[in-house]
Amino acid sequence: MFIHNFKYSLKILFRSKSLVFWTLAFPLIMAVLFNAAFSNIENSENFEPIDIAVVKSDDFEKNIIFKESLKFLSDKSSDKRFFDIEYTNLEKAEELLFDEKITGYLVFEGEDVSVTVNSSGINETILRYVSDEIKSIGGLTENIGKERISELIMSGNTDIDYERIFTNISKDIINEKQNIKDISTENMSYVMIEYYSLIAMTCMYSGILSMVLVNFKSANMCAVGKRSAVSPVKKIGMIMGSLVSGYVVQMLCILLMFLFTIFVIGVDYGENLPMTVLLSIVGSLAGLSMGVAVGTLVKKGDNAKTTILISITMAGCFLSGMMGITMKNIIDKNVPFLNMINPVAMITDGLYALYYNEQFNRVWFDIISLLIFTVVMMFISWRGLRRQTYDSL
Amino acid sequence: MNKKVIEVSGLVKEYKNLRAVDGLSFEVYEKEILGFLGPNGSGKSTTINCILSLLKYNEGDIKIFDRKMGPDSYEIKKNIGVIFQDVAVFDELTVYENVDYFCGLYIRSKNTRKEYIQSALELVGLEDYKKFRPKQLSGGLLRRLNIACGIAHKPKLIFLDEPTVAVDPQSRNNILDGIKKLRDGGATVVYTTHYMEEAEQLCDRIIIIDKGRIIAQGTSDSLKKLAKIEEKITVEVSGQAEKLIPKIKELNNVNDVVFENGLLVVSYGGGSDNIGDIIDLFRSNNVKYNKIYSERPTLNDVFLELTGKELRD
Amino acid sequence: MTVFKAFLKVVRNNLFMIILYTVILVFFAVINVSSGGGTSGFEDSKPAVAIVNDDKTSPVTKNLVDYLEKNSEVTDVKGGGEALNDALFYREISCIVYIPKNYGSDVLCGKEPELKIKSTGNYDATLSQMILSHYIRIQNVCAKNTETETELIKNINSSLEEKTDVNVVSNIDESALSRASLYYSFASYSITACIIFIVCLVLSSFNERNIRKRTAVSCMDTKKYNMILLLSSGIYAFAVWLVYNILGIFIAGDVMFTERGMLYILNSFIFSISSLALAYMLSTILHNKNAVTSIVNVIALGSSFLCGAFVSTEYLPDWVLAIAHILPTYWYINTNDRLSHIETINFETVLPLLINMLIILGFSILFSIISSFITKKKRTE
C-alpha cells in the first residue's frame, strides 16, 4: 500500500505543472537572476584606483615630497596603487570634475595644497587622507632633517647636501614598513548569502508538495480526499507514503539546484559541500512539515494555500537577507526571536556559519532547530492528519 | 425478503443552526437499488456521508453488513464503493491510472486489478480512453470515469451520490444501464438523486426525503398511490373552455380540474376510459382542442401531494 | 457596477499579498534610510571599525585608539569574537583591529610590533586601513627619533595635525535624493507585483471562456463591458500608485515637494500605466490562476533584479543592462538614478528624463496593441 501510494504520488507530482514550476523552475530562474544581479557587485566593491587631477604649476614642481609621493602612489607596477592621475591645467580639471570623470583635483599654492571635490564621500575622504599624509611626511621630513643637519653641523661637518638629506629622509618615511598583518578569511563573499537564501527557499517550497499531497488524502479538503477516506486504508499510512514521495521529489529538486548553481552558474560552496547538502536535506524536512501544517490546518482552496505557503516563504527569505543582505544581520542583532521561528533563517544561518568560519556548533544548532521546527509542525497537524471523520465537509 | 445490508436508526445530524438530518431510520436490503429522492438541500448527501463515517453525527446507529460502521471499520469499507457528487479524480493521471490508483487501495494483486479495471472501463464505456487525461474528457465521460473509479474493486455495496448531474442524455443512459448491471451482478446500490424520472426508471425502492426527514418510502408504484390520482388528462384547448369546468367536475372519478394558459388538466382518482368521457364532452359542447393526452401520475405529484411544493427547485 | 464589485472582491481576497509586497517595500526603505549606507552609501566618510584592545594601560596605545575614534566610527560590537566576525561579514564594520599585549611599550622600544587586522576589502576597508597605516607610519618614524613616551605622543599628534583644505563645489543634497531614488526604484517591484497580480487575476477570471460566453449573451454590450473592466483596473492601479507615493513622501520627506519630487511622482505614474498595460497583455494570454502567481513572481522579481531595483545599476554587469533595455523598468529606474544626480532642473537636464518617460509610454502602447491583437485573434477562433 505504501509503495502504491508512493508510486502514484510521484506520478502526480512530476506531472503537475504548477508544482514543478514552484519547486524546480522558480528556484533555477532565481539563481539565474541572482547571477545577473550579483556577479559584479563584489568586483565593484573591491577598491579600484581613484581618478584625480593635479593642477600643474611652479608651486607643484617645487613640492618635491608631493611630486614624489604622488608618483609613488600612482605607480602602475605597484599593487598598492591608489590613484590614476591626470596632470593638467585648472580649467580642464574643473571640467573633469564637473563631468564626474574625476573624484577631485589638487591645487598647489605656495607650500600649501588644497583639494576640490564635488561632494563628501569615501573616495573624496581617501583623497584628503592621502594629501594629509603627504603633508605630514613633509612636516616630519622637515623636523627630522633639521635635527640631522644641526647634528651634522654640531659634529663639524661643513659639506652638507641639504637636498639629498631631505630626499633620503622622505624616502625612508615613504618606504617605512607598517607592521600590519591582514588575517581576514577568504570567504568574504556575501553574495553567497543570496545563494543560501535561495537554497533555503527551495527547501521551503517543498511545503507546496506536501500540502497538495495531504489535501489529496483529506476528506474535508477535496473530492479526491473523500474517496481516499472511504477506502479501507489507514489515512496516516497513505499520507506517509505520499510524503516520502514528496521528499524524494524534493531531494531531486535540491540535487538539480546544486548541480545547476555549481556547474552552470559557477557558485563555489566552499569546502563544506557535504554539510551544506546535509543542511538542505534537513531544511527540506522543515519545508515539508510546514506544508503539512498549512495543508491540514488551513481550510481553504489549493490556490489560497499555495499563496500562503509562498508568502510565508518569501517573507522568511526577505528576513534572512534575500532582498538585501544586511537584513539578516539586522534581524540577528535586533530581533533574534524571529530567527528562532523562521526556518529560512535557520537554513541560511547554518549555511553561512559553514561557509564563513566553519562554526560547526552553530551549524548543528541550526540543524537541531530545524528538526525541532519539523517536530512542532508535525505535532500541531497530527490530529488533523489522522482524522478521518469531520464535523462538516 | 432479502438480507439487510444497511440499517440506519434515529440518525440526527445538526450543523450550527440547522438540523440537516432529523431522525432518519431505514434499511437497505441485499441486491436492491434504493433510490434516495429529494430536492437539493434535503439532506441526502449528508445522510450518505454520515453512513460512510465521513461526517460525525449527533445521534443514531448505523450498521452495515450487520456490523457497526465507524471511521476505522476497514473490513466494512473494503466492500463499499462510493461515487461522489463532485468528480474525484486526479488531473495529472490518465483514465487508466486513476482507476488503477483507487482500485489499488482495495485490491493488492496486480493481475486481479488489471482484470477488474478492464471490466470497470467496459462497464462505463471508457475502454477507448485509457490514455486520456481527465481534462481531455467531456463532462459526461468525466462522470463515467468518476463512476469507474468508485466501482472497479467490485464492491458489494455501492453509494452513488447524484452521479448524473449535468450529464448529456447519452451518458446518462449509459450510467443508468451500468448501475443496473452492477445490481444484476449482485451488488446493493444506494442511489441519491433529485431527478424523479431516474428514480422511477432505476430504483426498486424509493425513499423520499425532505428537510432531513423521510416523508414516504416504497416502490415507485406504491408511492404513486399516495398521490391519490391514477391518471392525469391534459387538453390543449383552442376555444372557450371555462364553461366546461363545472361539467367536467361532475364526471366520474374526477378529483381536480385546473385551467391555465390554455391547458386544461384533469386529475382522476380511478376509472377507465376517462379520456373518452372528456372527448365526448368537448365534442358535444363544440369546444375545439388541439391535443389531448393521458399520463400516469409521477413522483413529483407524490411529492407535491405530501409537501405542497414541487420536487424540482 | 457588478464588474467593479467583483474587482473589489478579488482585491479583498488577495489583500494579504498586497500588504506583503507593501510591507517588504517599507521595510526595505526604512532600513536603507536608517542604516545609512550598506552597499551604496557614499555619504559616510568615517569607516566603521572595531578594536580588540589587549593593551589597555599604555598611553601610546591609548593615543592610537583616540586617533581611530576621532577619524573613524569605532563600533562596539556586543557578543565577542563570533559577533565581530558576523559584523565584518555583513559590512557593518569594515575592519577589525587587534592590538596585542604590550603594544605600547614595544612601540616605544622601537620594536615595531605587529598589528593584526581583518578587513572586508571594500572601499570602506581601504579607507580604514589607510587611516591606520597613516598613523603607524608616523608612529614608527617618531619612535625612531624620540626617547620618552610623552615626547613620542606629542610628536605623533603634531605630525597628524597637518590637514588639507577641501573645497566642495557641488551642493545638492545627494543623501536625501539617493533615499528618494532608492525608494522609488525599489517601489518598481511592489508596483509591478501588486498591479499585475490583481489585474491578471481579475481579468483572467473574467476572460475564462465560459464567463466570456455568458457575458457575451448578457444584455450588457461587449464594448461597454470591456471599458468597465479597463476602468476598474485603472482605478485600482491608480490607487496602488497613490498609496506608494504617499508612503514615498513619508520616507523621502521634503524632497518630494520640489520640482524634482514631482518628477519622481510623474515617473512612477507613467510606470504604473505601463504595468497596467503589461497586466492587460498578460491577462489575455493567461487563463489559469496558478499560472498568474507564477508569472507575476517571475516578471516582478526578474525585472527588478535585471533593471537594478534591488542592486544599484552601477553594480550590474553590462550584459545584464543590455538585456534590461527591453524592459520598461529599466527606463523607470534610469530616470530615478539620473534624478538623484542632476544639479539643476532645466529643460536640458530634464529632457533625457522625458525621453525615458516617452519610452515607457511607448512600451505601454506596444503592450496594448499586442493584447488587442491577441483578443481579436481569439475572438475569431
Molecular structure report:
The complex is a heterotrimer of chains A (393), B (313) and C (381). Helices cover 70% and strands 7% of the residues of chain A. Chain A contains 17 helices and five strands. In chain A, strands 2-1-3-4 form a four-stranded mixed β-sheet, with helices on both faces. Chain A is elongated. Chain B is of the alpha/beta class and 313 residues long. Helix content of chain B is 34%, strand content 29%. The relative contact order of chain B is 0.14. The model of chain B has no long low-confidence stretch (mean pLDDT 89). Chain C folds into two domains: 243 residues, no CATH class; 113 residues, abc type-2 transporter like fold (3-Layer(aba) Sandwich), CATH 3.40.1710. Chain C has a four-stranded mixed β-sheet with strand order 2-1-3-4, with helices on one face. In chain C, helix 3 links the parallel strand 1 and strand 2. About 3% of the residues of chain C have low confidence. Chains in contact: A-B, A-C. At the A-C interface, helix 2, helix 3, strand 4, helix 7 and strand 5 of A face helix 2, helix 4, strand 4, helix 6 and helix 7 of C. Strand 4 of chain A pairs parallel with strand 5 of chain C.
Proportion in β-strands of chain B: 25-35%
Q: Gyration radius of chain B, to the nearest Å?
A: 23 Å
Strand content of chain A: 5-15%
SS class of chain A: alpha/beta
Specify the number of helices of chain A.
17
Number of domains of chain A: 2
Which pair of protein chains has the largest interface, and what are the residue counts?
A-C, 88 and 92 residues
Helix and strand content put the structural class of chain B at: alpha/beta
- Helix fraction bin of chain B: 25-40%
Radius of gyration of chain A: 33 Å
The level of helicity of chain A is over 70%
Gross morphology of chain A: elongated
Unreliable spans of chain B are: none
Q: Please mark out the parts of chain A with pLDDT under 50 across 5 or more consecutive residues, or reply none.
A: none
Oligomer state equals: heterotrimer
The count of domains of chain B is 2
Instruction: Please summarize the sheet with the most strands of chain A.
Output: 4 strands, mixed
**Secondary structure: number of strands of chain A:** 5
- How would a textbook summarize the main sheet of chain B? 6 strands, mixed
Distance between the termini of chain A: 26 Å
The arrangement of helices and strands of chain B along the chain is: EEEHEEHEHHHEHEHEEHEHEEHEH
